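Reviewers of the previous submission asked for a worked example of the structure-prediction workflow described in the proposal, so we include one complete record here. The input consisted solely of the amino acid sequence. No template or homolog information was supplied to the procedure at any stage.
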Amino acid sequence: MLWRSQTHRIGRRCARSGRPGKNLLLLTTEESGYVEFISKYESLRMENIKIKTSNALKAEELRIRTIKMAVQDRDILECGTRAFVSMIESYVKHDCGIVCGLKNLNVVGLAHAYSLLRLPRMPELKDRDLSAFKRSDEIDTSQIKFQQKSREIQRLKQRKLKNEEKSLEKAQKNASEKKKEMEMENAMESKRKRKISKDDDSTNNSKEEDWEEMASDMALLKKFKRGRLSKKELSELLDD
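From that input alone, the workflow returned the following structure tokens.
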């Protein structure tokens, strides 16, 4: 049912300063234990209200209509995502997590209720089976604009800055890797020259020893490239 998919908690904000008040709390089936919890520990009188609900087909139609709205305005898209994230995080931080645990929550149904196009990356969802989520791969979310021009201009500026930072990081990484490769080549060349300059009779060195030494050097160079050895440590080990 639609009302069971769209979960919304309302705090006790209608009864301030000792005044009486009423509010409406919508719960999913998985949250039924919450009724008994707040009735007992919050001293609230709960009344079950039967309302006319929609069916699964109508709920899906509403989800599609909401997605069309989100595609037209990034503000709607981001509002849905923030609400979903806040909902998931509230389950982790809530005091009555034993009564309404995150593991029992229909996360996919909740994501559909918020009409999400993508599931946000959250550590809380790391081990969950989310294969039933209807991901809208045909929609490029990066191209969805804010209807408000000032917000869209700001978004484009931030995206440009982020892309520039990524390009700079990539260039620095490539330069660092290239530098390491050159240092590796120089280290190998230096060792080769030292070996040639030795007065030892080459006939005393077996091919097997040469292969073992080469394999050892390659292992050291791999460690250096991965950052597990410093340039000084590599040089000292190659000199041994």
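The longest helix spans residues 149-197. We consider this example representative of the routine output the project will generate in years two and three.
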